[in-house]
Amino acid sequence: MTGRPDFVQRRAHLVAQMEPGSVAVLATSPEVARNADSDYPYRHDSTFYYLTGFTEPEAVLVLVAPRDAQPGRAILFCREKNPAREIWDGLRHGPEAARTLFRFDAAWPIDALDDQMAVLLADVPAVYCKLARDERLDAQLRRWLDSVRRQGRSGIRPPPALRDVTPLVDEMRVVKDAAEQAIMLRAGEISGAAHVRAMRAARPDVFEYALEAELLYEFRRNGAQFPAYTPIVASGPNSCILHYNSNDRQVRDGELVLIDAGCELDGYAADITRTWPVNGRFSAPQRALYELVLAAQQAALDAVRPGQTFHAVHDAAVRVLAQGMLDNGLLSRDKHGPLDDVIANKAYMPFYMHGTSHWLGMDVHDVGAYRLGGADDLAGKEKPSRPLREGMVLTIEPGIYVRPAEGVPEQFWNIGIRIEDDVVVAIGGHTLLTGSAPKTVHDIEALMAERP
């Protein structure tokens, strides 16, 4: 297992992209109250953690880019030691220990932030922050700039430029280094074991939440800190709801269960979907559509390699799925025409309405543009698809979802199938991170036949 990421190197990489002498300010996430005297489990801001490795709340990172003879600096503001509060809430590193352990040039109490920023932002050419993404920090920044402006009679000026740091860090995060890949591989192994556990626990009449409990137990038992997102445990008609997460239905004999679940380990997510029959045996219609989705996933996996475009992976899956819809009577050749017409007119969309992939990393839908030239806004849809590079991590998750409708063969009604794995783009192709969860019909049925 590769060691922990080099947070100092990441900070240096970001500073190298900033204007000389400028300042970057990034805050972590706030604590959020759940109800009286109880907070939601705390989870740090991903970008803040990416640059610091620091997981406590009430913390701010300030980076000062070097200029002329002045060296660059990385400064952490965090909570002071407080023995009384630590009895109730747990350890606080405090500024001095945080400076040493996390290798900052300086660390100061969070209560000193306002006074220090009025100094740090004086006469600098630009300030970098997450523009319009953090209301609390936006309000603080206005106060700090006002403090600097009030010094104008002394010849001190506020920064003339305000710049968004988000695109710079997002691009850094798109490519995962060896340490990140090692963590994500372990997260994939834990998540795969959880899917296996759920399959083994399944019986007709089980409740979806009971299967969810098996997943959560396996995550935590193996050291994962959280689920990476709310697990989807969708049976029967619920399998056709893409983001279903009520997980409270009783599964009937003969139905499929679609589980989309992954753990978060040391700040990194896994994302796996498996679909299987609760009684352990696929019916003929279930098997026909399952084999179709599996073939679509294989076509998409075959397209993952350096230099291939991100959207070519989706196109490969769509071509297989659309042909299968024609072959299985979900789409009519008389109405929709041959395969190329089905694809051009997007006639497959009623049965496959989502993309095949997304970036994966600290966030389950991780940061980074999918097209060249910027984010995917309306104009960006016309920009060229981004080529894949070694170290990028993405999901491969084709699916098919058949709701009852006129003209749709009844044998396929309420069948929703998705098969999802995580891959790292590697020399000559890709490396699979989630192979521990079985996905062929033979392997799933064999596993479930071994249930006690």
UniProtKB/TrEMBL annotation:
GO terms for biological process: proteolysis. Its EC number is 3.4.11.9. Keywords: Aminopeptidase, Hydrolase, Manganese, Metal-binding, Metalloprotease, Protease. One of its GO terms (cellular component) is cytosol. Its cofactor is Mn(2+). The keyword Transmembrane does not apply. InterPro entries: Aminopep_P_N (IPR007865), Creatin/AminoP/Spt16_N (IPR029149), Creatinase/aminopeptidase-like (IPR036005), Pept_M24 (IPR000994), Peptidase_M24B_aminopep-P_CS (IPR001131), X-Pro_dipept-like (IPR052433). Residues 2-138 form the Aminopeptidase P N-terminal domain. It comes from the Bacteria. It holds the Pfam family Peptidase_M24. One of its GO terms (molecular function) is manganese ion binding. SUPFAM superfamilies: Creatinase/aminopeptidase (SSF55920), Creatinase/prolidase N-terminal domain (SSF53092). It catalyses: Release of any N-terminal amino acid, including proline, that is linked to proline, even from a dipeptide or tripeptide. The keyword Metal-binding applies. Belongs to the peptidase M24B family. NCBIfam families: PRK10879.1. This is Xaa-Pro aminopeptidase.
